[in-house]
Design brief:
Elements: H1 5-24, E1 27-31, E2 37-46, E3 49-53, H2 58-63, E4 69-71, E5 76-78, H3 81-94, H4 99-103
Antiparallel strand pairs: 1-2, 1-5, 2-3, 3-4
Length: 116
């Protein structure tokens, strides 16, 4: 069955996101439910939030099996491998993380943030 114009356009947009993500490979840390730290690839930002993806799912996003997830900007932090590892240790041992550890990262700044 041939794809509709909308499906073809969606596929092209997904492919473009994946190509940009592969080129930039800008990693961020997302603070998920309960404070769980998650390493993600920044895909794009919009008025709906920061769109991120699991680094292992980029090809599935390109083919339409998965899609990036929009999260609130305040849940997205700059990536630092050592601090990410520290957060993972906290999460694995206590099922919670320390706010002071998150504060070391600094929030990701999207182009949609207002400038005061």
């Amino acid at each position: 069955m041939p794809l509709s114009d909308v499906q073809l356009a969606a596929r092209a947009i997904r492919a473009q996101w994946v190509e940009v993500a592969h080129m930039q490979q800008q990693l961020v840390i997302v603070q998920a439910l309960g404070g769980k730290p998650m390493k993600r690839v920044l895909m794009t930002t919009s008025e709906r939030g920061v769109h991120v993806a699991d680094p292992g799912l980029l090809e599935e996003i390109k083919t339409g099996i998965h899609a990036p997830v929009a999260v609130l900007p305040e849940q997205v932090f700059n990536f630092d491998e050592l601090i990410f590892d520290e957060l993972l240790v906290q999460w694995r041992s206590l099922k919670q993380t320390n706010a002071e550890t998150w504060a070391k990262l600094g929030n990701f700044q999207s182009m949609y943030d207002s400038v005061d």
